[in-house]
Amino acid sequence: MDTCVYCGKSIKQVDCKVKVSKKKYIVCSDVCCENTLKYVERDKKYKKVMYLGIFIPAVLILFNLLLEQGMKLVYLMQVVVGIIFILFPYPNVSFQTFSSVSVRGVIRICRILGIIFTILGLYLFITV
Ligand SMILES: [Zn+2]
């Protein structure tokens, strides 16, 4: 059975399709169609922000560890990465990946990871 690319609901009768980079994806409603297009647009704009937001802290952490500057900056960078995950949930390299996990599912996973990262980072930053 087909599933909606945005919310993951199974669809018996295909009424709506959304076109993303020359390929058509099935959606269950106009709302999901709109949300998918919005996601694609934001994904294009902010994917680089997400990758940079992970790359820069990763480099800083590496230097921090090499220079043995303690763990404070590492935990702070963990918080930064967590916030990036919450604000910019665009981890997929291509839209094709959404056939296995829905767009909404990916956003959810990203945000949950982001929240865990942020809380854990803050906790470590304050306590260690
Ligand atoms: Zn849907």
UniProtKB/TrEMBL annotation:
Keywords, alphabetical: Membrane, Transmembrane, Transmembrane helix
Chain segments annotated as transmembrane: 49-67, 73-93, 105-126
Superkingdom to which the source organism belongs: Bacteria
The name this protein goes by in its record: Uncharacterized protein
Protein source organism: Alkalibaculum sporogenes
